[in-house]
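User: Can you predict the 3D structure for this chain?
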Amino acid sequence: MKKTLLTVGLLVLAMGTARAQKLTAAGATFPYPIYSKWFGEYSTAHPGVEVNYAPIGSGGGIAQVTKGLVDFGASDMPMTDDMLSSSPVKLIHIPTVLGAVVPVFNVPGVKDIRFSPDVLADTYLGNISNWNDGRIAKDNPDAKLPDQKIIVVHRSDGSGTSFIWTDYLSKVSKDWANGPGKGSALSWPVGVAGKGNPGVAGLVRQLPGSIGYVDLIDAIKNNITFGAVKNSAGNWITASIESVTEAAASVKQMPADYRVSITNAPGANAYPISSFTYLLIPLKGTNQSNRTVLKDLLSWILKSGEGQVSALSYAPLPQSLVDKELKTIYSLQ
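Assistant: Here is the predicted structure, written as structure tokens:
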């Protein structure tokens, strides 16, 4: 009888522990659709485990994880050396998927626009301010571009999507590199601001004559027209899983810490505004139970979750990178 009661007691205790296994995370909006799917499916497959993710932007995710307020963060922007060294919480980057940032536009009567790198940079610098500008017209001889003011839309919050966008502009324009530069939050020369990818998408949909930048999935989800971009090989490329995958192929040797930029990548069909997105994982955890769940979640994402990403317009990680990351995850304390 005592043995039975002891067994029941241990079972109840185990169930209570399972209910207490709640992971909290915050960060990038760019991968939110796939993260929401992954975390929901993982919780369903592991009763008693909750994964709560707040899509507050990469800047917010970095701030929360470095302060130890969440179990892990998420960012489209690799943290800098200074950011990593000054963080009280020591972190590693785990790439999860590949995605694209696309130039979206709302120009009445125009469905296709091709954007050269210099035109994108000068539009966001305010040097090109009308849709019938000669440089836009030169790249789009068949488009009936209106005599209409361009309304530039950018992010208001600290954003990894902004980092990807401005990282690209800094590579293709000296004026941009020497001016606003690259970053998750910066002083924009012109334009109006929207919060998150949904905020930018919403403003572009509402404002005729507008141009903005959002991740590919948000453009597709919101049915917003987006343009092709001239890549480093001189070809006009529309964002797709295949063109993002080719951009990733430019990385011949992945750095040990996984921090890498693939904007303006070489390759005949590489989409030039592509990027990895990352989970920011503390090197050590204080709650061993949650730590075990986190490691299992990460390995589940890489082994099972990667097969789901294409349906949401992300590109999956190369298998060689998955194998490398799994070794990193298994080594976590």
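The mean pLDDT is 92. The CA atoms of residues 111 and 223 lie 12 Å apart.
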